[in-house]
Amino acid sequence: MPSQGTLTIILYFVVFFGIMYFLMIRPQQKQQKQRQAMLSSLRVKDKVITSGGIYGKITKIKEKSVMVQIADKIEVEVTRAGIASVENREITVEKDKDKKNGNKDGKEGKGKNAPESGKAETDDGAAEPTSGEG
What we know:
The protein has helices at about 5-40, 95-100; strands at about 45-50, 55-60, 65-70, 75-80, 85, 120, 125-130. It is of the alpha+beta class. Strands 4-3-2-1-5 form a 5-stranded antiparallel sheet, with no helix packed on it. The chain has a two-stranded antiparallel ribbon with strand order 6-7.
């Protein structure tokens, strides 16, 4: 029969591993899912940043790599894993079918990528004032 001290130590280990799971392991898995969703949803004309810090625009998508235009007439081939982030759109892992319809929070009239600041984004990424802001 285990003593009171042994049961207490076992309980401490169980609690410790439970806390470690919720503070470290679970957020890491969530991050991996989000990154995998980002890499699998890459599209032509996406503005991306590579893991080396190079900004560019995707011109062609291959099975394991993408062609990224970094300047006029200059393209480099980058592995999909070398893409650190997509700049021109938001990619999330959705759980509900309602969220996939683009109406996450029940607000009407604003799209998924609509700016909240009252400024409209132009094709080149610059923000312009909207509705009488000058």
